[in-house]
Amino acid sequence: xxxxxxxxxPPTHFDVEYVINPWMEGQLNAANTRLASAQWSSxxxxxxxxxxxxxxPPVNGLPDLVFTANAALVHRDSxxxxxxxxxxxxxxxxxxxxxxxxxxxxVRTLPDGIRFExxxxxxxxxxxxxxxxxxxxxxxxxxxxxxxxxxGLEVQPLRLRDSRFYHLDTCFCPLEEGLLIYFPEAFDxxxxxxxxxxxxxxxxxxxxxxxxxxxxxxxxxxGKTVILNHASPETAAWLTSRGxxxxxxxxxxxxxxxxxxxxxxxxxxxx
Length: 271
Ligand code: ARG
Fold this sequence. Notes:
By secondary structure, the protein is an alpha/beta fold. The chain has a single domain (about 5-265), classed as L-arginine/glycine Amidinotransferase, Chain A (5-stranded Propeller), CATH 3.75.10.10. The protein contains seven helices and 15 strands. It has helices at about 35-50, 90-100, 145-150, 190-200, 210, 235-240, 250-255; strands at about 5-10, 50-55, 70-75, 80, 105-110, 120-125, 130-135, 155-160, 170-175, 180, 205, 220, 225-230, 245-250, 265. The strands form five sheets. A three-stranded mixed sheet has the order 2-1-15, with helices on one face. The longest helix is centred in the first third of the chain and has 18 residues, at about 35-50. The structure holds arginine. Arginine binds near residues 21, 70, 89, 120 and 257. Arginine binds near residues 64, 120, 167 and 169.
């Protein structure tokens, strides 16, 4: 048994088949599916070196099911199931619920009409008893009291304001020991101040616009390992200076759908 456990879904049926975020514009059927498959396998192998990786079966007609981060918010033995904003992704929830239930999770469902996209928008801090909750594009602020009640964690809402960064995990990545990499301009003023007052300056690293669009914030952190699509020399140096091992895993084909390594995986052991 490794220290962490993740869920992934093979890209058998992956492609860009509709447009629900700015990254997908102009990319209809443009993913190189053989390359996508190779990139997914390389990431799967890198993740498997440091964690146990469970797989759920792919489903024909659900190309975004590969983005398992959107299945649910996992906390201990419960999982707050996603309720997707776009009709194209709504049929995914049933498959995620089935898998999570079979795996032993207590699956909780939000009241009808409250949208919530799981670990795409709800990220547990690794140094404080706090849940960061992104809203404004996919998830509704109305989910906040439920997340609070069901996790027992304080919830800090963060309003997203740049449609390229429509999920919190595209622009914000809590790391071990309370460290953080983030793209400040993706947030409204109040949210940015909340981040900066909760996380001391020497514990956070702000990315430039030029780097944020490489999805450097969409990183997977397991212990001292950080797996991400790409890191600039500056970001890599900051991470290294904090003791992290930076592991690049190119996922260009999945970025055409608006997701990178973090989106392609769901951490299942969240204490
Ligand atoms: N095409 C997917 C969508 O727009 C990408 C999801 C990326 N997942 C994530 N956790 N950011 O919903």
